[in-house]
Amino acid sequence: MFISGSGVEGADRVPAHASSSVPAGPGTRHEEGELPLLDPAVLRDLEDQLGGAGIASDFARDYAMLWGQRQGNLVAAVGREDRERALDAVISLKVSSAMVGGARMTRLTERLEAFIRGGDFPGGRALLAIVERHGDATVKELQLNYIGKAE
Q1: CA angle 79, 81, 82 (to 5 degrees)
Q2: Mind spelling out the 3-state secondary structure of the chain?
């Protein structure tokens, strides 16, 4: 079973200028309702599309393995205010998060992408710590409740 709480200290506190509708911690609601760290239906769909759990599990494993690199690229690009590289990094993270069912990460990266597209790098930097916490939690959730069960 996938948990819907974040298990991440302070994940429900988002700077006011960052976005009031960024997914929050357990029990907190926003206009889309509470988003889980992982949506198991997306992972089942991925398995169906790829013809079984093996390839889907490999994709999830790659997501977990590449998380640190993706996060580092994003932090560096946003820190340098390099719009092109920041967009490349955030879109890569958004798409891969969506593919593994990372609902909160998908939402957070959508918000971050909007800041970058709008040239609001201070607002984007304010979200980076939240993205990191939710990314770490998403990877842990994948490892415990999907990758580990497939092995």
Answers
A1: 115
A2: CCCCCCCCCCCCCCCCCCCCCCCCCCCCCCCCCCCCCCCHHHHHHHHHHHCCHHHHHHHHHHHHHHHHHHHHHHHHHHHCCCHHHHHHHHHHHHHHHHHCCCHHHHHHHHHHHHHHHCCCHHHHHHHHHHHHHHHHHHHHHHHHHHHHHHC
Q: What is the pLDDT of residues 8-26, one digit of tens each?
A: 333 333 333 343 333 333 3
Q: What is the C-alpha separation between 128 and 30, in angstroms, rounded? A: 20
Check: CB of residue 108 under 8 Å from CB of residue 24.
Answer: no
Among candidate residues 93, 105, 95, the one with its CA nearest the CA of residue 130: 105
Whole-number Å distance between alpha carbons of 149 and 31: 33
How far apart CA 11 and CA 23 sit, in angstroms, is: 9
Tokens at 107, concatenated: 């939402």
Model pTM score: 0.77
